[in-house]
Amino acid sequence: MSLLSRFRKDASGNVAILFGIVALPMIGIAGASVDYARASSARASLNVAVDSAALMVAREASKLTDAELRTRAEALIRANLAGNADARLGTYTVSVDRAARTVSVTADTTVETSITRVIGFDRIPVSSSAQAAWGTNTVELALVLDNTGSMSSSSKMTELKKASLDLLKILKDAATTPDQIRVSIVPFATQVRLPTTYKDSPWLRYDLTRTTGSGRSRTTETITKATWQGCVSDRDKAYDVSDASAVSGVNATLYPADFCAYASLTPIRPLTSDWTALQSTVNAMTPVGNTNVTIGAAWGMASLSQGAPLPEAAASTTPRLTKYMILLTDGDNTQNRFGDNQTTMDQRTATACTNAKAAGIKIYSIRVINGNSSLLRGCASEPSMFFEVSNASQLTPIFQQIAREISQIRLTM
Question: Strands 410-411 and 123-133: what pairing?
Fold first, then answer.
């Protein structure tokens, strides 16, 4: 009886019993962390595989049928998953929308668990999806380029021409249909210049004067159609910073034809997909005169807006159309028609940039060695769209980057 009593009171085996009760859950929890890590690795591999498949298939969409695209996508996903034993392709779908020019890829896989099986979980499902747009959306781009005298130093004009020609080539190669990408070029100094074929345009006014000589030889001359060489100065304030329509009979709204301060200033090239003509304009650019960034921004805006003075642009509501401006300068504002100081000129430039962005134009701004960094950074649509150039040779890679951003095939989700 004493032996039975001692056995009944002995608690020395409780630890082993309790351990046996909790062992399975503890093993399951530990196993879950291992299997979850494997599932995370499989998910990462699947994401990369699906993203890559969507992008690659989008690049080939114009050349392959829908069925061929699906076959190609499957092969790409399987190839990208080959290095991860836990990521075996399960079901997948490839949807092609040729009207929207998008391809959507979804895929899933199942990670077979190991230790987690002891708590009843045999597999962990993983899925991924991506959508890519192919081709290039319709693009209108204004190159608003400083052509002032300071651009002759430090190889700035040479490098600008090289970078601009490179950008034009990238955009030309990216275009898959006529007029899909169109570019305008706005060389600016204190004025801009137009072809004299615009001389009879109703949005021009001929009332500015200049005084020559001194003493008894001093004379005042008013600009006329016959003497006009294509140069245009700032519109009256506040029209100088906007693309508000010119109204016949309302002098302040009209564009003032002016005597050319510098007859060698290269004329504006309105929006076109004539790549040879665009290259010709770039090659003709000559550095001359002082800086008026506002007039460059205003005419860049005008070249991207419908109606006078440059009517080539499409409506901003056109489906899949994006309008861009590249605004480049190498110096501070120094001279405009009104004789404003630099601070006032900077304020007008900032307002012109604000108005352009409000009109739906995405602005890249580039400061080449000199100029007001804060002003140009504020002109850019986003901080990443502002570039500081400390050496003119940096212009080509920057222009290449911008051209590829404008025309690239891209993931949209």
Answer: antiparallel
Query: CB-based contacts of 254: which residues, under 8 Å, 6+ apart?
Result: 203, 204, 205, 235, 246, 247
| Residue 48 DSSP one-character state | H
What is the token pair recorded at 361?
A: 């134009």
Neighbours of 14 (CB within 10 A): 9
For the chain, give the percent of residues with pLDDT over 90: 60
Number of neighbouring beta carbons within 10 Å of residue 200: 8
Residue 74 CB partners (closer than 8 Å, separation 6+):
89, 92, 94
CA-to-CA distance for 230 and 248, rounded, in angstroms? 20
pLDDT tens across 190-199, in order?
999 999 999 9
pLDDT confidence of 360, banded at 50, 70, 90? very high
Inform me whether the pLDDT recorded for 28 exceeds 50: no
CB 128 within 8 A of CB 411: no
The pTM is what? 0.72
Alpha carbon distance 283, 160 (integer Å): 10
Written as six digits, the tokens of 14 are 């409780």
Alpha-carbon span 317 to 54, nearest angstrom: 28
Report residue 353 as tokens. Answer: 């940039």
Q: What CA–CA distance (Å, rounded) separates 31 from 319?
A: 53
Q: What SS3 class is residue 55?
A: helix
Peptide bond into 256 cis (omega under 30): no
